[in-house]
Amino acid sequence: MSQLIVSGMRPTGKLHLGHYLGVIQNWVKLQHKYDSYFFVADWHALTTKYDKTENLKNDVLDVTIDWLAAGIDPEISTIYVQSHIPEIAELNVYLGMVTPQNWVERDPTLKDMAKILRTKEGQNSQISYGLMGYPVLMSADIMMMNANAVPVGVDQVAHIEITRDIARRFNNIYNTEFFNEPQPILNHCSLICGLDGNKMGKSFQNDIKISDTAEVTAKKVMTAITDRSRMRKTDLGHPDDCEVAFKYWKIFGSEQEVSIVRSECEKGERGCADCKRQLGAKINECLAQIREKRVYYENHIDEVKDILSEGDKKARKRAGEVIAQVRELVRMY
Ligand code: TRP
Ligand code: SF4
To answer: What is the pTM of this model?
Structure first.
């Protein structure tokens, strides 16, 4: 029987190249090898943004459109919305009971999120009970499908560790081997940094979105950091000290293109402005097909909604089987 993977993303609006290269591209590859379940984690969005739900519906669709455009194939993968699977909420209750409080308090990602929240003002600066439950809810997502593995970015690995601990503990307590202990699957591509050299993120305004137009992308790429010691075109450049632009070349260019850029830069035959103009065109070329597909789905939103309801149905079938087992194992009435 083929192995099953499950993964999700919070609906944070339109996705950027960090999401695409770091996670989605990996899903696209893996979907041919695994029985694949991908969902939009809209309950997880509420853990920090329960008071900002104006755009939630639209954000769910935007994330789905980005996935479909990037090549997640609804014919072979199951794409669904977390909150449409009520069994996840029920499993979350059972898992919450068996999870020691200090396991969630130790979660490093949660500690980071809490730190960010504390710097905010107002009611949302409190850490809610729901946010504390983030890793348990995430475990419910994964264990709901009794997944064997979870393809995620490195930042999520600590969560998966907790999931493995919770699965093991559930098995121990109820004297069963029902739940798999899911393994993380990491993507081996190099992480793409933001235009300013920091981590790419929507809130840092240093990102390139999958949905950006070619013009916007070209403009953004012109702001990418280069070799800071270089003032004039004829100065000899140091591609390895070129903080962002050359790194992007290595991600998007062919081996031959990268070696041309390197040698022209080192010999002072290539100015940074020209270099980045070419780079922008290169990135646009790589994304053209995805963007075309994205526009198609934007104009066929009913098709996107149909794909999600089909996925909801398939996911609920699997969830129904698992939750029936769990009730049996816990010996619920
Ligand atoms: N925490 C993940 C993120 O922020 C989203 C997520 C929720 C998830 N549940 C999951 C990822 C289950 C993998 C498996 O991106
Ligand atoms: Fe970077 Fe290109 Fe400028 Fe060299 S020429 S420093 S690779 S942007």
So the answer is: 0.94
